[in-house]
Amino acid sequence: MKTRNYIEDNVDQMTKDLIDFIGIPSVIDEMDSNKPFGEAIDRALKWVLNQFEAIGFKTYYDPEGYYGYADYGEGREMLGILTHVDVVPGGIESHWTYGPFKGTLAGGRLYGRGVLDDKGPIVSVLYAMKALIAMEVPFNKRLRIIIGTDEENQWRGIYRYLKREEKPDFGFTPDASFPVQFAEKGLLQVRLKSTSKTDVRIKGGYAMNSIPESCVYHGNHIYKLEKQLKKMGFDHEIEGEELYVIGKSAHSSKPQMGVNAVMRMAMAAYDIGIESPILSFLYDKIGFTFHGETMFGKCVDAYSGDLTVSVNQLDMGAHGGVIGLDIRIPVTIDKKFIAEGIKRTAQKYGLVYDELDFLPPVFLPDTHPMIQTLRAVYEEETNLDGTPISSGGATYARALDNTVAFGPLFPGMPKLVHQADEYMDVKAFVKCTQIYAKAIERLVL
């Protein structure tokens, strides 16, 4: 009860700290030669370390800028909380009410890129620990807050950590949804490449884990394409010699929640007769489906649901072309079956398979002690059903054994991760912090 009251009494400062944190535009920038992922991500990493050091943690900053961590408590066993300071780009700023990196409090909501993924949860963990320290809660295990820098891309920060540092015995990542997630689908990301050249340029998609909200066309047939888009009822606009298809961003794990601008462009371009093996593949084998039915048939399991396939990048023109695919694989389905299926299908269209990344699935039985603890805490704090859930998301839980995702999104909240106007209710922000305080206290007993 005392920790809960401490958090409620400090909500104004907690909110201010999150607004300051959102104001650091920590989007990857590999053109910055001084730091691996750019100055802004490095600044965000140092900001977090400074915050934890100020309340009594021992901190470590990787001199190369790949990761950092903060330690508290004593004991043989270590609880790990895995977080990340990088965020996806803000996208089209005009789609935001207040701007992605302003950090705005309005109508009882906190708006800004990262408020859900993963800056808000980091501040929640920070204030959970402030409350526990203020209440002098004893720690019989060590706690390590691990801070990654490249979670939204290739996980190079956490991989560097795993090669060099001690691994926690168990833990959670506050980077998904409540209640506790006992299963996460496997994540396969690939590129399909073509040497076939076209006399038009089509380009869309900026991140492999986001449904593209915009796709641009440059070349002849622009007004023929516009006529087809009108016929199909797809939002678009012309600016000078370029035509843009307008979609809606969403997280790749839930492609049905977005509007894929790349696929709308590809389908319309194919319909007006633009010839390309890439467009033929997309038209025949993807279309407006989400589950890869034309390549794999029905692919589903009882633990984690359907396979999902989303086309998140497209770049084609005089140089050839490339498609970026994001595939979320049910936990009991063999990755080899999916990869071989894509290769065989792509080969028929003259496309070359290039695997970018694979993250194995997460699966812990609901009888696992940590699952039971996190479920109990959630139910006590919310009076809601805490039955463990599965997800198609790719969280840092995959990086370590005995690690799961836990929050911050509550049931019924809009799924705005990676979308414009990403926000979190202040009341939910406070409740999330209270849950983390109780969870940490139980797990370090």
3D architecture notes:
The model has no long low-confidence stretch (mean pLDDT 94). The strands form six sheets. An eight-stranded antiparallel β-sheet has the order 13-14-12-11-17-18-10-19, covered by helices on one side. The chain has a six-stranded mixed β-sheet with strand order 1-2-6-3-7-22, sandwiched between helices. Strands 4-5-24 form a three-stranded antiparallel β-sheet. With 445 residues, the protein is α+β, with helices and mostly antiparallel strands. It is globular and about 70 Å long. The protein has helices spanning 2-9, 11-22, 39-54, 119-134, 156-164, 222-232, 261-271, 277-286, 293-296, 335-348, 369-382, 426-443; strands at residues 58-61, 68-72, 78-84, 104-106, 109-111, 142-148, 170-173, 176-177, 181-184, 186-194, 201-204, 214-218, 236-239, 242-246, 300-301, 305-306, 308-317, 320-329, 352-359, 362-363, 389-391, 403-405, 408-409, 423-425. The chain folds into two domains: 2-184 and 362-443, Aminopeptidase (3-Layer(aba) Sandwich), CATH 3.40.630.10; 186-359, Alpha-Beta Plaits.
